[in-house]
Amino acid sequence: MSLNCYLVGAPVQTGTSQLGCLMGPDAFRTAGIADTLQALGHQVADHGNVSPREVERPSPGNHAVHHLNETVGWALALNEVANAAIERSDFPIFLGGDHSLSIGSVSGVTKAADQSGREQFVLWLDAHPDFHSLETTESGNLHGTPMAYLTGHGGFEDSYPEQTAKVKPANVCMMGLRSVDAAEKALLAESDIKVYDMRAIDEHGVAGPLRTFLEKVKAADGALHVSLDVDFLEPNIAPAVGTTVPGGATFREAHLIMEMLCDSDLVTSLDLVELNPFLDDRGRTAKLMVDLCASLLGRKVLDRPTRSY
Prior knowledge:
Blueprint: E1 4-10, H1 24-30, H2 33-39, E2 43-49, H3 68-88, E3 91-96, H4 102-115, E4 120-125, H5 146-150, E5 172-177, H6 182-189, E6 194-197, H7 198-204, H8 207-219, E7 223-229, H9 251-264, E8 267-273, H10 284-296
Parallel strand pairs: 1-2, 1-3, 3-8, 4-5, 4-7, 5-6, 7-8
Helix pairs in contact: 3-4, 8-9, 9-10
C-alpha cells in the first residue's frame, strides 16, 4: 500500500547534555530516508526543519533543570506541526533530535486522534522510560520527561504546554528498558504502562509481547505512534547516541519488531530520535535507523540490500 509520508525535521538538543543531536535530521536525509521510502512505492514530502517558539516559563524549583524555555518552545512548535501533519498525510515521521521532541510530536498526534474519536497508543522503544517529572530528574535533562508528561502525571503545571488530550497509561507499551532511575521505577510500579525490559525480552523474545500489544490496539481501532530511540539498540550496531547502555536490541530483534508493525498495518506516526551524528561511525547508525524505518514501511527480509561498513 502506498502512503503519503511526511518528514518533519526536529533538530532539538536542548533536552540533553551532549551536543550533536541537532544534526540528526540532516543525517537521516543524507542517509537517504526519502529515496528509500520512495523506492518502496510511498510518496514523500519533506516539511523541512521546525523552528521553536519563543516562550518564557517560571524557573522550576529543581535547579538541575536546564533549557526549559527552549524545550517548551520546541514542544509547542512540534505539537502544532504534528497535529497538522496527521491531517495532510498518512504517515508523519519526526526526525530528531533528542527524545524531548516527543513532548510535542506525541501530544500533537494524540490531539488529532482525540479529535477523530480514536484512542492513541504508544510503543516506546528505548533503553529508558523517560518517566521523570521536573521535580524528580537529577540530571535536569528534559529528554527524560516525555512519557510522564504525556500520560498525565503531575509536576508539569505552569511549565509544559497544557494538554487537551492525554495518552492513557494502559495504552503505552515500553520495550527494551535497561536503565531506570529509582524515581521512575517507583512511578512505573504504580502505573498501568506495560513494560518489557531486556530481561523479559531475553526470556520471551519480542514477538509474543508485541503481538499482545498490537491485538489491543487493533481491538480498540486505535492510532499507534512508535517512538524509536537509537539507544534501544545494542551500542555495537548503533554507536551514534549519547546515552549508550549495553545489552540493547539486536539487529534482527529490531527488524522483527518493525516487520511485525508493518504486518499489523496499525502504525500511524513515527519518531526517530537521539541520533547524534558526531558520535557515529561513517553514518552506520543513520543508515540502520533508515533501514528500520524501511522495514516498518514495507521492506521485506529478502529485499534488504547488502551493506558494507
